[in-house]
Amino acid sequence: MKLGYARVSTDDQDMLMQIEALKAASVIEENIFKEHVSGMKKDRPELKRLLEYAREGDEIVVFKLDRISRSLKHLEELVEGFNIRGIEFISLHEKIDTTSAMGKFFFRMMGAIAELERDIISERTKEQLAAKKKNGIKLGRPAVDNEKLEMALALHESKRYSVKEITEKVGISRTTFYDYLKNRPAN
Fold first, then answer.
1. Are strands 59-62 and 88-91 parallel, antiparallel or unpaired?
2. Among the three residues 81, 108, 135, which one is the final residue of a domain in this structure?
3. Which of 9, 122, 162, 173 is flagged as catalytic?
4. Is 138 domain-assigned?
């Protein structure tokens, strides 16, 4: 079964062009999942509904890649999920069709390039950390000044200030303060 997905960012925008293109690609209107939400939002109920509805052998058709995915990584995750579940993917504008050998090849190449990019970033990060360590640069978060922690504790014990007021006055985070309270040495 051919399933379509059409998305616009706001209710003011019109998705008629997307719907017409999907219908021209043999997707019947009842099988088009329509969404009015920004593509950058992770929570897209209609996309979620489409992904839950799709079954092995189905084809998910979109007008353009940016209608279904937030990023290249998100697109890879979607297509990998489709592959695992036996669902094909078609993007009309980019002429990508995983039902064909070239479409499958394109996505494998795209995945390989993305993996190479992740590996290069990882190697670069490790090299930078090693260079900093070699030059005596301390890694990790800086230690919090004990005087600040003691002052925060004294303010807390006075029961005159809220935790928010204490952390703002002393200049430490709430998490740091609560960790100190929980793990402070016994008197």
1. parallel
2. 108
3. 9
4. no
Considering the domain architecture, whether residues 82 and 151 belong to the same structural domain is answered as no
pTM for this predicted structure: 0.59
Phi then psi dihedrals of residue 128, to 5 deg: -65, -40
> Beta strand pairing status for 96-97 and 88-91?
antiparallel
Is there a contact between 21 and 27 (Cβ–Cβ < 8 Å)? no
**Cα angle: 104, vertex 109, 111; to 5 degrees:** 95
Per residue in 45-67, pLDDT (tens digit) is 999 999 999 999 999 999 998 88
CA 107 vs CA 68, 78, 80, 121, 172: distances in Å:
15, 11, 9, 21, 47
Same domain as 88, residue 6: yes
The residue type of 114 is A
Domain ranges, residue 176 = 146-183
Report how far Cα 183 is from the mean position of its chain's Cα atoms.
34
Known catalytic residue: 26? no
